[in-house]
């Protein structure tokens, strides 16, 4: 669902690339952490997925769209498929919790009936039922972040990007936020979370993609956030087949047909005028469940980190 092929991003008037020849594939329905020290390129990676920045070299596919070839007029439709959560919440300070979340649907032209139904459902999902009338300053940081997640998820986007969503929160609250993202992931939404948060990364045991000065240095299933010196790695491409018990999910990469993701015009975007209403999402309980069925694409390339020496 998200594919980077030899992607380099060099900002104007800089010499060192913010991302340097990055190859990456995040299949539909995956939860992936992107870790690395400050300046390693995490936010740049997120911005490239959103097409807030353009790659200097390489190819990026997101939800079936080749971003280099995506005309400007189709960028809003791309962004409707991507919910975003940030460290600083970015709530509208003079609007209530309900209004903050409803606003995301209003700008998509959703009907009042849909807003009246979907916003309370979503607030309940994120654990904020009963807080609809509060203003952001009447909420804790964790609650504000839950509002931001509700706003990002209210139109049920297939992709959720979270850039340091726990950066302003204490460890317990952070874990609750990541568990909420995990819960959203289990509805089928791909979640990519950039973070420095060692504790939550280690607690979740998800895929961990590590950047170091723009270079993808390791990519591990059920990884942890190794602190201290970053091992030098050799990236080894491998092809791994779909696990025997994984469901067949049309992925668009299986047959190389990006049109499988291309929902075409904005009218088909979730929440857009004329779009069929989404069925309500049944959320599994919060908590880890290793046996939970995971939507996963078919054949995919994975970079396997092989430690060659310590620095
Ligand atoms: N708009 C920009 N113009 C020039 N250089 C930039 C710009 N944005 C980021 N950079 C540079 O690109 C590199 C990667 O920055 P980026 O913000 O992606 O890192 P990060 O891992 O998200 O860092 P942090 O954890 O501090 O947010 C840094 O060297 C940064 O200075």
Can you give me a brief rundown of this structure?
With about 300 residues, the protein is of the alpha/beta class.
Description of the molecule:
This protein has helices spanning 42-50, 75-80, 97-106, 112-125, 141-153, 171-185, 198-204, and strands spanning 2-9, 19-26, 31-35, 57-62, 65-66, 82-86, 159-163, 190-195, 207-212, 215-220, 232-240, 300-309. The protein is an alpha/beta fold and 311 residues long. It has one domain: Rossmann fold. Helix 3 runs parallel beside helix 5 (141-153), helix 5 (141-153) runs parallel beside helix 6 (171-185) and helix 6 (171-185) packs across helix 7. The chain has a 6-stranded mixed sheet with strand order 6-7-8-3-9-10, with helices on both faces. The radius of gyration is 19 Å and the shape is globular. The model is unreliable at 227-311 (pLDDT under 50). The longest helix is centred in the middle third of the chain and has 15 residues, at 171-185. It has 7 helices and 12 strands. Bound molecules: adenosine-5'-triphosphate. Adenosine-5'-triphosphate binds at residues 11, 14, 18, 36, 38-44. This is Cell division ATP-binding protein FtsE. Residues 226-311 are annotated as: Disordered. It is found in: Cell membrane.
Give keywords.
311 residues; Rossmann fold; 24% strand; disordered C terminus; binds adenosine-5'-triphosphate; ABC_transpr_LolD-like; ATP-binding; cell division
